[in-house]
Task: structure prediction
Amino acid sequence: MYCRDFWVQAECLLVVGDRDQGKTTTLKSLLASDRFRMQRTCGVLALANSEKTWYRLLDLSSGQQRLAMSMQPFGGATTTFGRFHLDESAFLWMNDRIISHLDVCTLAVFDEIGKLEWEGRGLAPAFAKALEKNQLTILAAVRTQFVDAIIDRFSLDVSKLERIGVEQRGNAL
Result:
């Protein structure tokens, strides 16, 4: 079951939930819904294996994927972030892909905006650029514990946000 807490506005929607609660599943459901299905979409989904030991970034514009994080060291990993080895070049690639499509898309998807972005890393550059676009709807997953920090970091106007809370994992809208 999904619980909806609406702040007020459809230009920036935050899909909020805890780890493994279904934020990406909710984003996928929203993208397939009547509200968003016909939008010109750019952005990223973070695809994980079932054990969540690695994450690939899926470019929604092209369908291309890149391994970005893994619990095991891998070729592109240059830094660590918590328990993960992180390939900063995968995030640079994804930021470039999103930013290059912002002028032609009507919906920008970010899965997810969290501690990396709060630190100015990860998807922070593309998210910040997307926030500058007036004719763009932003759909972003954010963990519950980071919502206030993300609002502060990116100076989001809470009166212009719509918040969709995820209560249970894996349920359809």
The chain has a mean pLDDT of 88. The helical segments are 23-32, 88-101, 115-118, 124-131, 147-153. Residues 88-101 form the longest helix (14 residues).
